[in-house]
Design goal:
This protein has helices spanning 20-28, 48-53, 70-80, 99-109, and strands at 7-13, 35-42, 60-65, 85-88. It is of the alpha/beta class. The chain has a 4-stranded parallel sheet, with helices on both faces. Helix 1 links the parallel strand 1 (7-13) and strand 2 (35-42).
Length: 114
């Protein structure tokens, strides 16, 4: 039942060529499988767009915008999200492998959690 809940992970990024792939990989490698990854490229002028585009993942969406800042990039990702649960990961950070499983389990225990 829990793998039927889609989790949307938004990754806002600006000039993140040195770490975006590792952040995305930490979401891909999650124990929990029902997820989508939305990378919002906030006007990067480095190779961020190329790196993300070359990953060719079915559950990854890349949105390119002008540089409006992190909050705007997160909001853009939220508007594009299809998940029942939506969260974000900073592009220079990683998720531990069981994080999404833990989050989904907590929502199943208490659906009023926000």
């Amino acid at each position: 039942m829990k793998n039927k809940i889609l989790v949307s992970v938004i990754i806002p990024v600006y000039n993140g060529e040195n770490y975006i792939e590792e952040a995305i990989k930490s979401v891909i490698d999650q124990e929990y499988h029902s997820k989508e990854i939305i990378v919002v490229n906030d006007g990067s002028i480095d190779k961020t767009e190329e790196i993300v585009s070359n990953l060719n993942l079915d559950n990854l969406k890349l949105i390119n915008t002008k540089n409006y800042g992190q909050a705007s990039a997160i909001n853009t990702g939220i508007y594009s999200a299809s998940g029942n649960i939506v969260g974000y990961l900073s592009a220079d950070d990683i998720f531990k492998p069981k994080l999404l499983t833990h989050i989904v389990n907590e929502f199943l225990k208490n659906p009023k959690v926000a």
